[in-house]
Amino acid sequence: MAKLIPGKLRMEGVTLYETGNIEIIKEKGNRLYTCVAGEDLRYSLEDDLVFCACDFFQKRGYCVHLAALEHYLKNDEEGQVILQALEKGHEEQEEVETKVGFGGSFLERIQPQKREKIYTLSAQGQVEAGTNRLLWTLRIGLVDSQKYYVIRDIPLFLKVLVHRKPYMIGKHYENDLSWDAFDTASQEVLTFLCG
To answer: Rounded to 5 degrees, what are φ and ψ at 171?
Structure first.
């Protein structure tokens, strides 16, 4: 219930609550499915899972229907019981996620280190008609792979290498790409491009 909803909307939500326009449909997987004043609303303690079908919510991320449901959960006896069940389920889920995270880090420590990836570059230079400038096409791929990916922004790529920043190659994300990750011939090409 961390949504910041303006006071005027909160008061309208209280009015909706008082007129009995809140219907609890079901509670499933730490989510509460409801119908508030004819609008379907999904509620969760995780803000990014909260959703209302009304247009106002689509624009602002909050609405009078959400305000009414939050008032119900805080102030109605039934609502408080439902909220406690949601909180308990949320705490159990966080505990499981913590245990899974710990188990994952433990497994990473006991597994053998992964084989180093060695990348290779394919560079093609083409003389631009009329200006006699060289236009470069640079492709990157693993040494033992036949698949190469075009590097669209060569200056950015060179900057990433110099600063050992993360870089996306195809669908894989390299955490700290550096000169050492390339074969000798590719390092020479990079040295030439850096000028």
So the answer is: -100, 0
Q: Cα(23)–Cα(79) distance, rounded to whole angstroms?
A: 11
pTM reported for the whole predicted model: 0.48
- Among residues 178, 174, 183, 182, the alpha carbon closest in space to that of 114 is found at 174
In the predicted model, what is the mean pLDDT of residues 170-189? 83
Length of the chain: 195
Listed by start position, the domains of the chain span 7-91, 119-194
Question: What is the DSSP annotation of 118-166?
Answer: -EEEEEEEEEPTTT--EEEEEEEEETT-S--EEES-HHHHHHHHHHT--
For residue 6 the two structure tokens come to 């303006």
For residues 164 and 177, the answer to whether their CB atoms sit within 8 Å is yes
